[in-house]
Amino acid sequence: MSRVGHGHGHSHALNEEPASQRVRTLLMWLLVPFALATIIGAALLYPFGHEQKTGAEIGLHQTPVEAVVTGLAQNCGEKCVAVTVQMSDGAASGQSITIPTVKGPGAPSFQIGDEVVLSYAGSQPQAAESYQIVDFQRGWSLAVLALLFAAAVLLLGRWQGLAALGALLLSFVVLVLFVMPSILAGENPLMVAVVGAGLIMFMVLYLTHGISARTSTAVLGTLVSLALIGVLGALFSALSKLTGLDEDTTNLVTLLGTDIDTRGLLLAGTLIGALGVLDDVTVTQTSAVWELRRANEELTWRELFAAGSRIGRDHMSSVVNTLVMAYAGAALPLLLAISLAGRSMGEILTSQQIAQEIVRTLVGSIGLVAAIPVTTALAALVAARQEPKTVKPAAKPVEPEKPRPARIEGDLFTGYDPDKGPWERPSEPRARRAASARPAPPARRKSSGSP
Q: How high does pLDDT run on average in the chain?
């Protein structure tokens, strides 16, 4: 109880930075080289001046056209429905055409008023044969969902929630404007992912949690864990002879027409996929150690590490399960398709598509598990190196003086002369005799009423 009370007495000094100035300087010197390397790597890997071919330049002649369903007819066959749509853009904007579509299990069902996307791949904009319905328009529904998400984050997080939304936007900017163009330009996917993950990590953590020793500790723990994931991913991808050539990657290589490191692309996806969960683990562990130190500043780094590890063990199981379920959910259609081939469970798990998901999941999970003791140990070492605080002793309260009784300077009957010594109350008979010995006041003469 005394320790907790003592810790609360220093709550203002330990509010944000229980680490000493020397430790904070050491953290800065450790992280500045990584930050500079990330910036230099981004400048070297970014494809300045490279113009990526798209659309018809790489053999994709389909042009998206927006349209609205205006009519449905069952006159084109047993498993066919004729969908009439009115185009709202493109070369034949405003014109209506009728497109036969497949009807049955697995085929989309249409209703009048549905907003759809057509694929135009012909030379005659007015001909129905030049179009095909390929998708629905989802802009407004996704916009509503994004607004609900932003409102929930702002309602709970307020200013920190606003910073989190800004960090999320910056993450998408890095992925869209740096990672994707660099890989498409032929740069090594693994190196691009390492630099991109570094950019996201520095921007997201410092923007969301501020520049402090706590954030720097979380960044350092994330760096160590990412390095472990990269090394293990490269090692077991080589040992398992994974090529990374699944259906989507094969289509990408065919469209690009150039060589691309498909195994590096697999590792890049592993790093970026684990980064978001790693941030959660490292920030949580660092904050837990900081709060323990703030509650009791007499805890040593061993005690901080032991208490933080107990918290981390509870967090570990849920985090690993989250990563496994995320990868399993993404690969669920593939799992169902392979199970229909009549192959054994061992053959399914060791196939190219499933094995690479297993490597991603297990390597990422090892990195998450390792992030807990690594980050906890770093946070305990940093938080325990607190500068001694000088606290002025509290001033003793001044007790008010007791009021002294009023001193009686005489007697109501006999009077008192201070020169005669201490006063003593006379006895009752003596007081009466003294009162009777006084001369009576002169009698008042009655008025006769005459002048």
A: 80
